[in-house]
Amino acid sequence: MPSAFHSLLLPLNRKRKSKLRRSRNHPKESKPKKSKNHLAAGSGDPSFHLKTSSSSFRSNTCLVQPLGNLLLSASPRANLRDAGLGSLRAIPDDLLLDVLGLLPARDLTALSAASKALYVVASHDPLWRALVLDELGGWFDFAGTWRDTYVAAVSGGRRSRRSPRGPEIRGFYSDYLFQSWLCANMEMRHEWLARDNIQRRRGLTVEQFIAEFEEPNRPVLLEGCIESWPALKKWTREYLLDESAGKEFAVGPVSMTLDRYFKYSDNVQEERPLYLFDAKFAEKVPEMGRDYEVPVYFREDLFSVLGEERPDHRWVIIGPAGSGSSFHVDPNSTSAWNAIIKGAKKWVMFPPEVVPPGVHPSADGAEVTSPVSIMEWFMNFYSACKTWEKRPIECVCRTGEVVFVPNGWWHLVINLEESIAITQNYVSRRNLLNVLDFLKKPNASELVSGTKDRVNLHDKFCSAIEAAHPGMVNQLELEAEQKAAARKKKASFWDSALDANTGGFKFSF
Ligand SMILES: O=C(O)CCC(=O)C(=O)O
């Protein structure tokens, strides 16, 4: 790695998002999201450490250098990219990749033999990932790179005859391609992990949890509340592989058996690793459903009145280091808990009224996911909120710990090591009115997710709640009105005590 990378590296600017990087942002979201343009927004110390490649298949060398390094090269105008792309050089890299993404594998291979520059571009692994997932679904044996996986699959399992090193590439400069490689290969920096300002609580009573966290809608990390889960001891790889043999789990846009997924996750190093996020795990593998129970704080589950028609509400989540969930807000205004059975996750959370830097929610609330990858967010946006008055709540949550994610909170999560977790989204009396408001929005058909009947969910839920808990909604509305009136009264007392002209207090002794 040339040392000039350090000085010229950041901020890198990947203005447009290539289609190849536009996979669904979060598995709980039911619709593909539109991409948004954005600019990198500053950076801190630009030094970085590369992951040591754990894969027996590949090394993490990069064919590309950041554009700034061209200034330091012997011939600052000689970018191999431009010389070797011919008239395609006028097209920005992200657009070029979108165009190449339309080609079948045969044409991509032919193109990569035309020049070294085209070799670099046509070897961009996300192009091959899209081909593998489109053509093979989850039925692939990962071979270290997506290109090799594709070649092995179409040649009946034989490894690629391509030289493992490929042609020698020098002097190809591209911020877009370099940052994609860097996001896949760099370690999380110490400064991104150091801040831990969440409240950690052990032994809370349910009443304390409600009063201190659920009612005021504040995150908390709960310790010691899943110690009795059999999953903590039982969920070794061998056990999960045995129990789930032949069953497929939802992994990004495809379904995969666990053995194929582990072969992939053990050997992958990419910017957005495929994440196993399955809502039907307990139906497919009932033993997994029996190996955990809902922690005592989250037992009120009002969506259960909808029976079969309830939106998806529980997921098993498995992923390698570097996988995770980019910024989003959970669906249907629900709150959630996330319990780690194995591994460690870094969390960053912003309250509902604070949109994280780099995230652009749409005005109608239909778009609540982030267009930037997790590593890209840390590289280009994490330091932007250092000086903010409302800094995010952050923590590293480890095996046996549970994070409470209050409704409406933005959150980003990255696995620091291979992790297995269970998460559930729920509606309790504390967020029932929020959820009903959400389901009633005029564009509910766009907003509601995790269920087939997006339009009628509000009415169905209201009737089912009324049948199961007569008077509950009215009672909650009354209490909410009383609380609002009490808040107003408190505010007007202070208003009257405050001298509007001077901004000081009026004392009338
Ligand atoms: O990746 C994770 O564990 C976090 C999952 C998450 O954010 C969610 O379930 O909403």
From TrEMBL:
In its UniProt record, a GO molecular function of this protein is: cis-regulatory region sequence-specific DNA binding
Q: Would the keyword Iron be found if you checked this record's keyword annotation? A: yes
Q: Which superkingdom does the taxonomy of this entry point to?
A: Eukaryota
Q: Principal localization?
A: nucleus
Query: Per the record, what is one GO cellular component?
Result: nucleus
> What SMART domains does this protein's entry cite?
JmjC (SM00558)
Residue ranges of every copy of the F-box domain listed in the record: 85-131
- What family does the Swiss-Prot or TrEMBL record give for this protein? Belongs to the JARID1 histone demethylase family.
State what protein this is by name. F-box protein
The species this protein was found in? Eleusine coracana subsp. coracana
